[in-house]
Amino acid sequence: MGGTARVSMMLILLAAITFIATLFATETKGRSLLD
Amino acid sequence: MVIMALGTFVVGCLPTYQQIGVWAPILLVILRLIQGIGLRGEWGGASLMVIEHAPPGRRGLFGSLVQIGFPLGLVTSSGVFALVTMMPEADFKLWGWRIPFLLSILLLGVGWFVRARVPETPIFEEIKRRGAISRNPFVEVILKNPRSFLVAVGLKISEVSWVYILTIFIVVYATSQLNLPRTLVLNAIFVAALVEVITIPFFGWLSDHIGRRIFYFLGTLFTACFAFPPFWLLSTKDPQIIILTVVVALSFGHGTMFGYSRPIFPNCSARACATAAHRLAFSSPQPWEEGFRLSSRLRWPATWAAPPGYR
Q1: Are the Cβ atoms of A25 and B271 closer than 8 angstroms?
Q2: pLDDT tens digit string along B289-310?
Q3: In this predicted complex, what is the ipTM?
Q4: Which residue in B has a C-alpha nearest to residue A28's C-alpha?
């Protein structure tokens, strides 16, 4: 497997960042772009 | 658009390593960075134009139609390179590889024609009528809306890295470390891109009915759970498993968060702020991506993706 484990760990870390960002994101379905 | 088209065109005009030595790869890296800046600048604007013209309740679907340019681009570039590689290998290495890059100048004309005929969006006209256009959106979004900006960038990080691991790193890893045929892996990406032409609008359509955030949550969970399995599945060296792996990974780790990314970006008090956050979020990862693409090629023994003159 070699160096791919580090790549996989990086992907998990970046997914965690996006997950956290999603927690702070506003649901925009049905909202006006002018809000 | 001009930056992107000219940057690609000039790659086709570059002298080779044999002609100018180390300056050849240096110039190639610089041009790739320029392409990245041009691509993201245009991409953000195109997404905004489509979404702001979209009917109410269909922004996800319409926004996703812009994003299928990515898989379509993969399919088209693969097809063009497949055609030019049909010529004698010596001719391909000598000058044939330049043809796809030189053809990109045609896109400049098409893009310019379209751009000149697209009217400003109703939303922008409304903002202008209200006198709410920001005079300096870049500074405004950084200083007055740092949270929105950081959220917008954070939303992009996972899918951006995921797609380049799948389309760049895995190809180099599979060919150089697992000794898999290059055509098998490239065909897997080709099939996955074709499937994504359907799945991206599908997820965009779903986001109009179910919501946007849920797919970001599901996409990140999929990415986290599927971070190790692709490498295990590649090592089986079974063609069907490899193709299925890339198809599933690209559609669920990328398509779920990619197709309608613009509509979920948080709105700022002024539309110009949202525009700037969106464009910055798209722009900021691109030079990093291009650097990653090139470093992947340089680090691993295989140099399949570099033009022959730079191998």
Answers
A1: no
A2: 433 343 333 333 333 333 333 3
A3: 0.91
A4: B264
Residues of B in contact with A22 (CB under 8 A): 155, 213, 216-217, 220
Q: Which of B133, B170, B264 to mutate to test the interface with A (most CBs of A within 10 A)?
A: B264
C-beta of residue B70 within 8 angstroms of C-beta of residue B258: yes
Q: Which of B151, B154, B161 is CA-nearest to residue B274? A: B151
The tens digit of pLDDT for each residue in B173-198 reads: 998 889 998 888 888 988 999 999 99
pTM: 0.74
Which residues from chain A sit within 8 angstroms of residue B59, using beta carbons? Answer: 28, 33
